[in-house]
């Protein structure tokens, strides 16, 4: 049989259009995900080429919200190995398992999840791998990291989700999750083996359940080159968006920045990570650390978090209020009327928790209420954008974790922000890799937020955006990376002396030059005859 042959008049541009047509012909988001996944395998350059040109359309498929669906159903839609699974049964030989990865010497960035809290969807076990792949696609598209240098990893440690244990197609280990010393011993061996096998690689921890997220960040952050995206990346991106939102709100109300008050609905790794990072909004506005802390209130499933609550988890203690001694306050409208916040941030995983009464209570207190429903995916978002605009008569300053489309209200177009760590981790990773930082320090994360906040163009400011438009993500990542590199240099954490010799303009040029681009399209799947 003769080999397959292109039609003689075949043109690459047509092929791009053809792929987009095929993508757009799919009506179901998960089918679009499966199509793109297959395209990446057949012709990865074509895949990244159309991704770079169509970010607004494709990122919501490869990342939140659709990646959530891909994870939930991963054992059923699985087609081929596409990442590195490290199993609890590999304990004792993790180094050998890692060493099977084909592009060992290229490895620069790994996103590692244990699948225990994927977005707000809970314990998905080994089905969590697509979150690592989706985050790494954002590194490639958003920061120009070379595809071959990315390592998606899922730790297959078992799952406590019974429906997966009962599913004959489940691809992971069928056992309950390890806890305590068994989990610690696995993680210690894993991190040590990573350092040995990929000596220059940065590890991004992703979607570990809250206790382990805090625990392993604390345990390894000064020992290895590692950061936690949900705690630090989210903290940084929301510090940035909140800074811009507070400026807009203060312009309407005349309130000084230091007088803002933030109410967090949800006090997990993301809620507390963001709350801690937002302390610096207040200290940068002139408050003492203690005064800054007093500006933040946290709420969990049992209501306003107070210090007198029995059995309070460790991570909730820092923001627990000591100035409220009444009966437990559980109703969100009551809490809002008591606290009188200028901003309400949702990291609770509770869909529609910000009801009309809640939004109207915020509106009654503020000329321009800041409301950020940040839970992912969209199916768990605390507030729909349309409701937010209508219930505040267009006054809301809004950012959500998953994307919403702009809408027209009162004859004016309103554009929502996307408060998602995707604006920050590509730049933190890129900067850390380039300057070969030994650790990712708190100040590096803070500088990343400041760089992102100041990256808005005049046009974006005029549109009252709190985050830049997604199309500019490579420029944004470059600016974030410079801030990260300069801070690492200041703290003497860097190990690339050459970058120290460059002024910012040359460093920016170097970063852009190093960004990977898909090569001029060539069609990989067939031989052109
Ligand atoms: N926008 C972004 O960039 C990011 C968003 N997230 C989202 O944040 C959400 C939370 O993530 P984690 O903190 O890791 O999860 P988690 O499960 O540790 O935290 C959830 C928190 O919400 C609270 N909560 C649950 N039900 C509640 C209720 N009925 N009323 C009030 N509070 C309630 C819980 O007590 C807990 O404090 C997820 O949906 C995740 O996708 C996480 C990281 C980044
Ligand atoms: C965005 C993200 O990291 C999360 O929802 O977990
Ligand atoms: Mg996450």
Automatic annotation (TrEMBL):
<protein>
    <recommendedName>
        <fullName>Malic enzyme</fullName>
    </recommendedName>
</protein>
<feature type="binding site">
    <location>
        <position position="206"/>
    </location>
    <ligand>
        <name>a divalent metal cation</name>
    </ligand>
</feature>
<dbReference type="InterPro" id="IPR037062">
    <property type="entry name" value="Malic_N_dom_sf"/>
</dbReference>
<dbReference type="GO" id="GO:0046872">
    <property type="term" value="F:metal ion binding"/>
</dbReference>
<dbReference type="InterPro" id="IPR012301">
    <property type="entry name" value="Malic_N_dom"/>
</dbReference>
<dbReference type="GO" id="GO:0006108">
    <property type="term" value="P:malate metabolic process"/>
</dbReference>
<feature type="active site" description="Proton acceptor">
    <location>
        <position position="135"/>
    </location>
</feature>
<feature type="binding site">
    <location>
        <position position="420"/>
    </location>
    <ligand>
        <name>(S)-malate</name>
    </ligand>
</feature>
<feature type="binding site">
    <location>
        <position position="117"/>
    </location>
    <ligand>
        <name>(S)-malate</name>
    </ligand>
</feature>
<keyword id="KW-0560">Oxidoreductase</keyword>
<keyword id="KW-0479">Metal-binding</keyword>
<feature type="domain" description="Malic enzyme N-terminal">
    <location>
        <begin position="40"/>
        <end position="221"/>
    </location>
</feature>
<dbReference type="GO" id="GO:0004471">
    <property type="term" value="F:malate dehydrogenase (decarboxylating) (NAD+) activity"/>
</dbReference>
<feature type="binding site">
    <location>
        <position position="207"/>
    </location>
    <ligand>
        <name>a divalent metal cation</name>
    </ligand>
</feature>
<feature type="active site" description="Proton donor">
    <location>
        <position position="63"/>
    </location>
</feature>
<feature type="domain" description="Malic enzyme NAD-binding">
    <location>
        <begin position="231"/>
        <end position="489"/>
    </location>
</feature>
<dbReference type="InterPro" id="IPR001891">
    <property type="entry name" value="Malic_OxRdtase"/>
</dbReference>
<feature type="binding site">
    <location>
        <position position="230"/>
    </location>
    <ligand>
        <name>a divalent metal cation</name>
    </ligand>
</feature>
<dbReference type="InterPro" id="IPR036291">
    <property type="entry name" value="NAD(P)-bd_dom_sf"/>
</dbReference>
<dbReference type="InterPro" id="IPR012302">
    <property type="entry name" value="Malic_NAD-bd"/>
</dbReference>
<dbReference type="Pfam" id="PF03949">
    <property type="entry name" value="Malic_M"/>
</dbReference>
<dbReference type="InterPro" id="IPR046346">
    <property type="entry name" value="Aminoacid_DH-like_N_sf"/>
</dbReference>
<dbReference type="GO" id="GO:0051287">
    <property type="term" value="F:NAD binding"/>
</dbReference>
<dbReference type="GO" id="GO:0005739">
    <property type="term" value="C:mitochondrion"/>
</dbReference>
<dbReference type="Pfam" id="PF00390">
    <property type="entry name" value="malic"/>
</dbReference>
<comment type="similarity">
    <text>Belongs to the malic enzymes family.</text>
</comment>
<feature type="binding site">
    <location>
        <position position="376"/>
    </location>
    <ligand>
        <name>(S)-malate</name>
    </ligand>
</feature>
């Amino acid at each position: 049989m003769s080999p397959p042959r292109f039609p003689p008049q075949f043109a690459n541009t047509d092929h791009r259009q053809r792929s987009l047509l095929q993508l757009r012909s799919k009506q179901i988001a998960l089918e679009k995900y499966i199509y793109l996944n297959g395209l990446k395998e057949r012709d990865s350059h074509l895949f990244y080429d159309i991704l770079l040109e169509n970010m607004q359309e494709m990122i919501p498929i490869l990342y939140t919200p659709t990646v959530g669906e891909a994870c939930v159903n991963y054992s059923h839609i699985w087609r081929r190995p596409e990442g590195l699974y490290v199993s609890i049964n590999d304990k004792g030989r993790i180094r050998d398992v890692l060493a099977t990865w084909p592009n060992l010497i290229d490895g620069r960035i790994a996103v590692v999840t244990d699948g225990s809290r994927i977005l707000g969807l809970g314990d998905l076990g080994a089905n969590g791998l697509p979150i690592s792949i989706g985050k790494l696609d954002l590194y490639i598209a958003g920061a120009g990291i070379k595809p071959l240098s990315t390592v998606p990893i899922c730790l297959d440690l078992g799952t406590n989700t019974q429906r997966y244990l009962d599913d004959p197609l489940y691809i992971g280990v069928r056992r309950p999750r390890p806890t305590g010393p068994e989990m610690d011993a696995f993680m210690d061996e894993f991190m040590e083996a990573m350092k040995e096998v990929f000596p220059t690689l940065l590890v991004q921890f992703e979607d570990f359940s809250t206790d382990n997220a805090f625990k392993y960040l604390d345990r390894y952050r000064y020992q290895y080159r590692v950061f936690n995206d949900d705690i630090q990346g989210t903290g940084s991106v929301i510090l940035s968006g909140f800074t811009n939102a507070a400026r807009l709100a203060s312009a309407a109300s005349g309130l000084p920045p230091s007088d803002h008050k933030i109410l967090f609905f949800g006090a997990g790794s993301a809620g507390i990570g963001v709350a801690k990072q937002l302390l610096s909004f207040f200290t940068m506005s002139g408050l003492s650390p203690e005064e800054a802390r007093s500006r933040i209130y946290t709420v969990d499933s049992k209501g306003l978090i107070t210090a007198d609550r029995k059995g309070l988890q460790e991570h909730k203690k820092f923001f627990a209020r000591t100035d409220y001694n009444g009966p437990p306050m559980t109703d969100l409208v009551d809490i809002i009327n008591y606290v009188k916040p200028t901003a309400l941030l949702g990291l609770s995983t509770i869909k529609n928790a910000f009801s009309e009464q809640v939004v109207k209570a915020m509106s009654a207190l503020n000329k321009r209420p800041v409301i950020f429903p940040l839970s992912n995916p969209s199916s768990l978002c605390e507030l729909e954008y349309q409701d937010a605009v209508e219930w505040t008569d267009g006054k809301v300053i809004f950012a959500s974790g998953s994307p919403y489309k702009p809408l027209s209200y009162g004859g004016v177009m309103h554009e929502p922000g996307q408060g998602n760590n995707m604006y920050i981790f590509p730049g933190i990773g890129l900067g850390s890799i380039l300057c070969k930082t030994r650790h990712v320090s708190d100040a590096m994360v803070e500088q990343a937020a400041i760089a992102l906040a100041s990256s808005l163009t005049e046009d974006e400011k005029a549109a009252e955006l709190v985050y830049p438009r997604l199309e500019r993500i490579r420029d944004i990542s470059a600016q974030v990376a410079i801030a990260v590199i300069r801070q690492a240099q200041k703290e003497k954490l860097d190990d690339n002396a050459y970058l120290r010799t460059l002024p910012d303009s040359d460093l920016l040029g170097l970063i852009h030059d190093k960004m990977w681009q898909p090569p001029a399209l060539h069609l990989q799947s067939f031989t052109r005859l």
